[in-house]
Amino acid sequence: MRTCLHLRRGEREEGHAAPGQAPGRPPRAGTSADTRAGPATPAGERAGVMIRPTDIEVAEVWRGSTHVGSITRTAHGSIFEYAADFFEQHAARPGGIAVHLPYSRRRTETLGANLHTYFAGLLPEGLRLRVLLQNVKTSEDDLLSLLVAAGADTVGDLSVVPQGQTFPRPVPRGAKWKPESVLFTDLFAQSLPRLGTENTEPTIPGVQEKLSASTISFPVSSSGQRDYILKLNPRDKPELVRNEHFFMGMAKQCGLRVATTRLIHDRDGNDGLLVERFDRSWEKAEKRLRRIHQEDACQFLDRYTSDKYRLTCAAIAEGLRENCAAPVPELARFLHLLAFSYLIGNGDLHAKNVSILAEGPGGGFRLSPAYDLLTTLPYGDHRMALKFEGRDDNFRRAHFIAFGERYGVNAKAVSVMLDKLCTRAEPWLERLEEIGFDARRTDFLRRTMHKRLQELRAP
Length: 459
Description:
Distance between the termini: 46 Å
Largest sheet: 5 strands, antiparallel
CATH class of the largest domain: Mainly Alpha
Radius of gyration: 22 Å
Strand order of the largest sheet: 1-9-10-12-11
Shape: globular
């Protein structure tokens, strides 16, 4: 069956109109509960001219067609403030637009960075961020300019746009393209927003050379009822998307809830991985996609992306226990994800690759489907990204049982999960050639996974 999709210009990857939980949190260090309005400098846009992101002093935050609030630059950071009408309607309600932006606190000041941790977590990473930096002509710590430049279709249910711009309207569905008729690298270039003062195509000088440094991902839409992320291979890892597709399929067979993936190919036969977005849900009555609130572990733990490798499994478990509507089942799912990732050697399970989704207005969170699952063993990375029981390698069955019991998941449930994982995973060790690694790396991967299976099995 052929895939027909259409590209959405100026939107970003990764990786929701329900509020978060955690009502009435006290302001963190460097924040203020002051409700006075901050300065509102007009964006200064004139007809036919786009203002540079670095010139924008105030950005507006929207949830669908609802104006939520604004982000204002300050000399030492930024201020997020709920809009007066929105605050009046929501101040007495539990939750907030994000875990650490409660309705009960109208004004939140951030010092030392010009975006709150939640908004900073909406920025793209890798090649897309480097291209934005080059085109916007700003520094890496000018987070507000980069977020405005990245486009309104961020992960989750909130959009950030320049002051004075109306809320982002849904992109009409139906424009189609066939993967086999295009070049994926051209689509990546076309997905970047137009920047500057002229209505010109985005420039990405050196993009071909930079492909080897990171994977590439960007949003695409279908003519149907789904939205997707398209992921491409870096030049030095031509099997990376097949790697992810293989282990996402294996994870599903091992009982994990995962994002749906599909391998596709462009005009030159290059691989692409189409990942169905789980932060979008089709509303049949309204014939549109509803955006679902999503936060990764950096966001729900109030940390910046730079800490994604510094957080621990214990810190994430505490965040899940605090924010999930039914914590114990979600903690069990998190433990399942950790065990699977250790088994396959997924050394890139960092804090931004663990997310929660809102259940509904005021309904708390659940763990999102797993995503970005692949092995890093053939690339020389055998250590886990998140410290688990004080270690990043050589996990044992007893470690998982002890961790589960500490967070309310009983030992029998963990044992049953590990037994099923090992039984279902073992046949996949005979299929590793499907990924495309050379014989030496495939053999190393198989031997390491076999060793880890033995470590997870009952004695």
